[in-house]
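Sequence in, structure out.
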Amino acid sequence: MSEEQAREMGLVVVGAAGRMGQTLIRAIATIAGARVVGAVERAGSPDIGKDAGTLAGVGEIGVPITDDPLPVFARADGVLDFTTPAASIEFAGYAAQARIVHVIGTTGCSAADDAAIAAAARHATIVKSGNMSLGVNLLAVLVEQAAAALSADDFDIEILEMHHRNKVDAPSGTALLLGEAAAKGREIGLRDNSVRVRDGHTGARQTGSIGFATLRGGSVVGDHSVILAGTGERVTLSHHAEDRAIFARGAVKAALWARGKKPGLYSMRDVLGLA
């Protein structure tokens, strides 16, 4: 290993053969200070044994895809994880054992899943966000400020999101992140004040509630709008993702930021200095 490689942050990509996994590998190849040292896929994957770089289209990098995370976690500095809640919990345990950085972009986590990840953060440095995009996390700050400035008596908050036809969780992790920001600005709890479904005779809108609307179709990477609707005026704060690479670049940035940080559960706001 060269001196330069020794200084670089060695990253493991889990779900390496998937669409996001390959995007992460391509992003790492373009960012100074990081390199792929491990690639993990589920047992039985037809991609086991293939070179992760070749599969991702960046050329051979000498990292074969494996279904055994333990050896690769042991020699890594961090792991990038956009998988499933159950898998992320498992990987969080391995990251805690190895005392390495764990960046989690997985969405659809339940309260119990989040609690398990928080428990692992007692020993691992975890950065978790419903969206790793730098722009979305700036948007969340603006949403919080707008919600605080425009009172619930005068402005209703609705969150509209659209994703590709294959997305399995709703509302999206990003929509919930923005909802949490709006609720924080209003100093209320999102869980008790959100409206996820409207159907039939719903009655008048409850003052102070935060509504969610979900659209699915085509190949949309991710569109999110937070609408603050008042009498005679509306304020709309939006973000449109055009390329999954923005999430991958944000995840690598988060890993580099977290290197050397104390164990704990961090967010992208911490990474951006917006916490």
